[in-house]
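Hi W.,

Here's what went into the run:
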Amino acid sequence: MATRSTDTRKRWFSVSRPAVMFIVASFALVAAFSSPAFAAKKDPIKIGVLSFLSGKLKPIGDEITTGIQTAVKMHGPVMGRSIELILEDSLVNAQVAVTKATKLVQKNQVTAILGTSTLEALALLPVANRLRVPIITSNSGSAVITGEKCNYWVFQTNPTPQMAVVAMDSLINDTPKFKAAKWFTMGHDYPWSRRVARSVKIVKGVNYVGEAYAPLDTTDWAPFIAKVRASGATAVVIPVTLGTPLVQFIQQANEFGLTKQATLVAPIGLPDWLIAKLGELSTHIVSAGAWSAWRLEDTIPTTKKFNELYYKMHGRVAGMQAIQAGTAAQLLFNAIEKAGSTDGKAIVAALEKLDVEAPAGRMRFQKDGRMAEVALILGRIEKLKKPKYGAMYAQSVNALPASKTLEPAKKLGCNLKK
Amino acid sequence: MFVNSLNGIIYGSFLALTSLGLSLVFGLGRVVNFAHGVLYALGGYFFIIFLPSLGWGAMVFAPLVVVPLAIAMEWLTIAPIRNRDEIYTLLVTFGLSFMITGAIEYLWGTETTLIKPPVIFQGTVDILGNQFPVYRLFASALSLLVTGLVFVFIQFTAVGLKIRAITDDNEMAEALGINTRWLLTSIFGGAAGFAAFAGALGAPIFSVEPEMGMGIIIDSFLAVILGGLGHLPGTAVGAFIVALAKSIGGGYIAEWAIAVLFLVVAAIMVLRPRGVFGRGRIA
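Here's what came out:
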C-alpha cells in the first residue's frame, strides 16, 4: 500500500508538473496576448488618408494628417488592433484622387478613407459604391456631398457653407452693431460668394449698400477696396478664397484704412494658421461660421485632451481642419468598435447610430442623412491674454447648434440608396 | 474715377518695371521668357531672407543675388538653343518656371509671408479726400525712377547704342563686331535683376508666396504685346493701359474687369498690330 501510495504521489507529481507548466504557460500567453504590445503585433487596421500632401494646399493637408495622427494616438488600439495610416497625395487633382483611393482599397485593403476635402470628396462620390468602404470627409465645402448627391458610403463632419450662410442671420440679428451696420459683400467671382451675399441681403431690416466680385486671380485689390470705401460700408462680408488671396485682401484692406472704417466678416471663419500669419490684423475680423475652434476646450473635455496631445505631438495649436479631421477619425474608431468588425457595411450601420463626444463637440449624423450635426462657432478674433499652445490670437467662441443651421436630410435633397 | 485712375497709375508704374525686362529680352534675343515671373518671385524671397540682417538694404541686395543665377540659367539652358525657333525658348523657360517654383516650395515652403512697409512709409495720405497708402506711392515713384533710368541708359550710353543695334538687326550688329553673345547674356541678367527688384519692392503690397510671379507675368506679357514686341517705350505705355483697364474696370464693373482688359487688348491688337506706337515686331 505504502508503495502504491508512493507511486501514486510520484504519478501525481509526474502528471502534475506538465499540468502546472501548462497552466503557467496559459496564464503567460493570456497576459501577453491581452497586452497593448501584443495588440500592436496583431494585424493593424489600415486606414487610408487621402489629402493634399504637396503644393500650395499642403498647409491644409498637414493640418488634416496631423489631426488624424493625433486622434490615432489619443484613441489607442481599436478592437485590440493598432491603427496603420496609409497616406496618399491627391495632388489637388480629381482623377488622381480616384486612382489613389482605388489603390488604397484594392492594394492596401484599407478599412476606410479619411482626410478628404471638397475636391477629393466630390471625385469619390461616383465611385464610392464600387470602393465599398466608409469615407468620412472633414474639410468639404460643397452642399451636394451630403445633399442631392449624398451617398451611402460618404459621411461629412464639417459644417457646409449653407450652414454658415444660415449662421449669418443669427450673427447680424444677435449683434446690435451689425444690425445697425451698412453691409457690403466683397468676394471672389463664383457662386458661393453670391450665396453669401444673398444670405446677408435677406436678413430682415439689413442695410445693404453694395457688392463686388473680383476675378479669382486678383492680386491687387485696390480698385475693389476703393469701391467698398466709396459705399460707406461699415461691415464687409468677405467670401474670398482661403489662403493667399484672403491674406492679400486683408493686408491691402488694412493698407487702405478699410479696417478702420469697417469690420470684416469672414463667412466660414479663418484657419488658425492663417490667424497666426495675420497676427494683429486678424483682430479686425469676425468669424461667421468657423468649422471648429480649439477654444471649445473650455467646455468640452475631449477637445482639451485633443488640443494638449496635438500640441505635444506637433508643437502648435490644433487648427480647425486638424480638429475636424481628428473628429472624423474619432468617429470612425468608435464605429469600428461598435460594429465589432472592419466590414464596411457594419461600420456604416454603426456610424449611423453613433453619438459620441469628439474634439469638435458632441457628434452624431443626422437622421436619414450623412451630415454630422455639428455646431458652428461665431465670434471676433481676439488677442489672447496669455498665449496658449503657441497661439497669440484666436476666435472667441459662441457656439450655434446644428439644430439652428442644419436642415433635414430630405430637405437638403439627400435620398440614400443602400 | 480719380481714385481708380490713381490706383491704375500706381499699379501701372510697377507693371512697367516688371514688363521692361521681358521686352528687353525679347527685343534682343527673341526669347519669350516665361521664367520672368519666377525671377520676380525669387526677388521677393531673397528680400525676405536678407531683410532681418540687411534691413531695407535687402531690396537692393536681393536682385544682386538673382542676377548671377539668371545668367547661369541663360548660359546653361537658353544660349544653346538661341538660334532655333522662338517656340524652343518659350518651352524651355516655361519648364524652368515650374522647376524654379517647385524649388522655391521645397526650400521655403508654400506659405504666404506678409511684410510690413518701413515705418516711415506706413499709413495713408489724403489726396483730394481719398486715402492712399504711402508705401504704394513710394513704390510707384521708385518704379518710375528706375524705369526712367533704364530708358536713359539705353538712349544715351554706348552700351545702350549696342543694345538698340542688336534689337534692330542682330546679324548686322554682329557683323559690325558687337559681341552679341556677351550682351544678350548680360541683358538677360539685367532683366532678371529688374524683375527681382520689382518682387522685393512689391513684397509689402502683394506679400510673398511661391506663385506670386504668375499673376504679374500675365499682365506683363499683355503690356509687352500692347506696346509692340521688343519696343521699350511702347511696353511702358502698354503697362499703364493694362493697369488702368484693370483698375477702372474693377472699380465700376468688377465682374467684367478681366473681360474689359482683354477687350481693350483685342481692340488695340486689331487696330495697331505692331503695338501702340506701331514700332514693335509682329513676332
